[in-house]
Design goal:
The protein is mainly alpha-helical and 129 residues long. The longest helix is centred in the middle third of the chain and has 29 residues. The relative contact order is 0.16. It is 63% helix and 9% strand. The chain has five helices and two strands; from the N terminus they run ββααααα. It starts with 15 loop residues before the first strand and ends with a helix.
Length: 129
């Protein structure tokens, strides 16, 4: 089951799908794609906001070069692990069909672009002007 607390209304044509792999007791797993898309959108919003805020922090702190890159990587992994621990209770399989590595690195490139934009903007505002 995906996010039983999502409070999502049943969308037309977006009912639960049956997973082809049955369980050990012969039952099949139900996977609701509407809730899955909603969860992915929420996580994407959290990670995008993290990229913007961490870029601002790195710029104001004056981080340059590899120190700024390390700041982004550490903060991205911290946010991904926070989502996994606080919201998913380390039960990734119940909420997603992704592997652990793909979950931790999801949205990495998109967030990196937001990070770079705000990192250079705030570094320029604080230290160049």
């Amino acid at each position: 089951m995906i996010d039983p607390m999502a409070n999502l209304d049943a969308a037309p044509g977006a009912g639960p799908e049956m997973d082809a792999a049955g369980g050990a007791d012969g039952s099949q797993e139900v996977f609701d794609m509407h809730a899955y898309r909603s969860n992915l959108m929420k996580m994407d919003n959290i990670r995008s906001f993290m990229g913007i805020v961490s870029g601002c922090v790195a710029g104001v702190c004056g981080l340059t070069g590899l120190a700024g890159l390390a700041c982004f990587i550490v903060l991205h992994l911290t946010v991904s692990l926070s989502i996994l621990s606080f919201k998913m209770k380390f039960d990734l399989h119940s909420y997603s069909r992704e592997s652990m590595i793909s979950f931790l690195l999801a949205g990495f490139q998109q967030c990196a672009m937001s990070f770079m934009l705000f990192w250079t903007l705030f570094f320029g505002l604080v230290y160049l002007f």
